[in-house]
């Protein structure tokens, strides 16, 4: 049986072309190439060697390096006397009939070079050059468990290289004593390893005989996985929602930019002040739109060579993550300027990060490299591989490459190289699967200088600087829109920018901001269209706070922070009416429209006939209380069932009508409520029911009712989520009936938000009162803002005895939110506010913890 398998393997190998071909791939496999023309084989000497000023390339990294092969990855390690001091070069040009052209890796001396693929590959092909003057070359391969057959062929007919044992498990090529010039192919070998049985995991090249120089060509192989097409498609905006990219105006902040209008909105601030290297900017943006992580770096500053950390801002928690990592620890070398780079992108589950390598004199003769950083199942970066490299400078004072930015889409790398002159500025299009440069557009005076770049969900590439425009794919940019954001509603001032800048220092994308969703059951937001959702605008909201999510989830009472309706009435179908009061806020300067839908027919859909007449809410600096009334409604909903109520508020200019219980709006809010249905007549009429938190953290319950004979009892019930209710106690009615007043206490209320109701019990029947809501902040947060008034800086000190997440928001005098962040307070935490970027005036600092909202005034001089 073994002989039959081996014979089949030999036949497959012998059928492959011997020379001059790329890997031929079976079904389900795709050809890939590692092309040394666009990579930098690192060396441990010259300007790459570690110094006291930068980490450079340590000997261990030079001896074992990692490179991408399409979506696959391999390490290449030399040992046993092998040396590599010149890396890849074009010194050897005798490549006719071989498997490659262009740059090759130059080695010296005898020993082994081991290539280890992360996952099995098929049909490996490469060439060895300059095996002459009595040198020997042996190649073996394995699938990780068993040896694989190797086919070795002398390119020039075997006159100067005698090959023995090929095809076989360890063929050997022995050179004659003749020496051949580097422009000849007399000393070249072609190697093919089909891996026909299972695949190829490792390849070992052993060089013996008389020691000398030799070269390794590009590596071709078949890989299983290809790059994902339309990777960003799930960032597609809702109908009517614009597409955004991220950008930083060369400062400590990041904004999201509307690609249709150029409007910039503040997203978050970095923590430059907390960095010992005193960096100047947030840079190197890359956004993982699936997990909502924004990767970035701090760059420039006093000790740029010490900046080796990639940082992460977590949009889920809206806080700077503790997941920071030193790139040197995963095999990425840094030099004079550390991780200073405006080049980064997130694609296909990996972070692609560019490291510049030039020095101040532009004579480093090093290359700028893009690295692929992979993450393990825990989301921790654990390895890297080199993807693309170009010379940073020419070694003689000329800058050759300087990343303005790059993006990736459908396996293509778009490198926007802004080295600073029309002869060195380039738009590169590089195929990461084939290793080939598809296009290289050099800018001319009629072209647009390569700048920052972010891509959209559809694959469009957005050029960004002080304006944005769509890259046309041929070295040009279409019509541009000026980035703006200098009104009170937006931040920062893109018209001039902090510190005098008014241009994007880096960009990323696609970005889809959180929105507020309705959370009634799924039938109320059919999958055939967009759900009810609103992009946040702090000037238009229902209640006093907003709820923002990435997707509709949960059901009312468990996932939301709806607070517009403080007292939700029970629906009694017998009255043929429903009335409830909602608190709304509109400080936008323009009228807003309020519409509510009440599903009184219980069909699981908000029909236009179930909507109130739209209400216009004029702009005001105060909360406004509005009654929602459904008169003359006929309902057959049974006693004890539930139905749902939806309330939406948005600008009048958005054109919302009663036919729009679902869909997207770019401001405002939506809130859903679960309404109890109860229509039994009882021998009691509830006049009032109130609940209030008293000193000492106790809840006082007061109610007044008109009682008739036959009334049995009140039952006090409490809930933490408005769905699951706990019985507290029974209260017998007062003697004599008629109008009665009651007062009871809950001496051990739940922490946070609690819901209270009364169950009124008569002979054979019962019904419920309206629900009352209490917020019991059991741990408390002490807040101190210093200095106040503030001039150049201000700091918030937060102190708690129990850990909690604190959401911090700053609103200006017009009610617009200009800053927000989230921190975890466990003891004492500090938040630095960028007040130097704000206009003089009065601001409200809002801190939200455990549903407790605390507002403090901050004056900026």
General description of the model:
The chain is an all-beta fold and 861 residues long. The chain has 5 domains: 222 residues, no CATH class; 269 residues, Neuraminidase (6 Propeller), CATH 2.120.10; 143 residues, no CATH class; 93 residues, Immunoglobulins (Immunoglobulin-like, Sandwich); 79 residues, Immunoglobulin-like. The strands form 13 sheets. It has a 15-stranded antiparallel beta sheet that branches. Strands 19, 20, 21, 22 and 23 form a 5-stranded antiparallel beta sheet that branches. Strands 49, 50, 52, 53 and 54 form a 5-stranded antiparallel beta sheet that branches. A hairpin with a 2-residue loop joins strand 28 and strand 29. It is elongated, with a radius of gyration of 34 Å. The N terminus is likely disordered.
Top keywords for this entry?
861 residues, mainly beta, Neuraminidase, 5 domains, 15-stranded antiparallel β-sheet, five-stranded antiparallel β-sheet, 61 strands, 2% helix, disordered N terminus
Task: Sum this structure up briefly.
This protein has 861 residues and is an all-beta fold. It has two helices and 61 strands.
CATH first level of the largest domain: Mainly Beta
Number of helices: 2
Average of the residue pLDDT scores: 87
CATH architectural name of the largest domain: 6 Propeller
Strand proportion, as a percent range, falls in 35-45%
Report helical residue fraction.
under 10%
**CA-to-CA gap between the ends?**
88 Å
Q: Which parts are unreliable, with pLDDT below 50 for 5 consecutive residues or more?
A: 1-21, 487-492, 495-500
**SS class:** mainly beta
The major sheet is characterized as:
15 strands, antiparallel
